Amino acid sequence: MVVFIDKLKVLSSVGWYVEEREIGVELIVSIRIELNSSVISDDLNDTVDYAEIARLAVEISKQPVQLIETYIHNLKTSILERYAKTRSIKSIFIKIEKPQIFQSNLQYEGVGIEALYIL
Q1: How many CB atoms lie within 10 A of CB 81?
Q2: Residue 49 within a domain
Q3: Residue 118 lies in a domain
Q4: Which of 14, 24, 81, 109 has the most other CB atoms within 10 Å of its CB?
């Protein structure tokens, strides 16, 4: 079973340039959390709440960091800390897209980073 969020748009303080951290840049966040299928119940406390994951993604995006890699690491760490008690997470996949690069005149549809953590 996979709990997922696709293309959550957040205004972040993530960026190499000071202006990016001060003004903010849009990031598009996608998260997939694979759950242990043997843990099945009708209790939200036994699973991962996608609304809580979205809230964490927004909250962490407000922390000023220079690299998307750091944002991904901080988000993964927060998810694991929040859901340590459930012990049902098998893997976390996080994809961050950055639709615009500051100080670039290049034509592209976006850049980004993907990370897969197998637990």
Answers
A1: 9
A2: yes
A3: no
A4: 14
Classify residue 86: in a domain, yes or no. yes
And the tokens for 28?
């598009």
pLDDT of residue 110: 76
Element (H, E) at 92: strand 89-98
Per-residue model confidence as pLDDT tens for the chain (119 residues): 899 999 999 999 998 888 888 899 999 999 999 988 765 678 777 788 999 999 999 999 999 999 999 999 999 999 999 987 766 889 999 999 998 876 667 777 778 999 999 98
Question: Could you tell me if residue 119 is inside a domain?
Answer: no
Q: Which three-class secondary structure state does DSSP give residue 9?
A: strand
Sheet holding 111-118, edge to edge: 2-12, 25-35, 89-98, 111-118
Segments of 13-77 assigned E as strands: 25-35
- CA angle (87, 93, 98) in 5-degree steps: 140
56 token code pair: 């964490």
The two three-digit tokens of residue 9, written as one number = 């748009």
Domain with 94 in it: what CATH number? 3.30.1130.10
